Amino acid sequence: MHYLVPAAIAFLLGLTANYILSILWVFDTGAYQSRWYEFTIFYVIGIICLGLNEGITLFFNEKVRFHSLVSKIVSTAVVYCWNFFVRKFILFS
């Protein structure tokens, strides 16, 4: 199996858990009244993050020739920061 497939599956499963934990423990209140609308925006942001994650990982694996674990660490760090701040300012401001 290509290494990006399980990464995408894990990312999408983690996205749902991330939403639940975000509304329970991290952010006080959402910016929108509808949880479904909020969840949809959360998921769209997550899909963008998935694209960034996959793209950065692929770039560092294929072009820079980093080990896949190093590529994933770099990708995770970049996407984590972007993800947190975008969600904080769009969804939970």
Q: Quick gist of this model?
A:
By secondary structure, the protein is mainly α. It contains 3 helices and no strands.
Explain what the structure shows.
The protein is mainly α and 93 residues long. It has one domain. The chain is built from three helices and no strands. Helix 2 packs antiparallel against helix 3. The chain is elongated and about 45 Å long. It starts with a helix and ends with a helix. The model has no long low-confidence stretch (mean pLDDT 85).
What is the CA–CA distance across the termini? 40 Å
What is the radius of gyration computed over CA atoms, rounded to a whole number of angstroms? 14 Å
Number of domains: 1
Share of β-strand residues: under 5%
Shape: elongated
Write the SSE topology.
Layout: H1 4-26, H2 35-63, H3 68-90
Helix pairs in contact: 1-2, 2-3
Keywords:
3 helices, mainly alpha, single chain, 81% helix, 93 residues, elongated
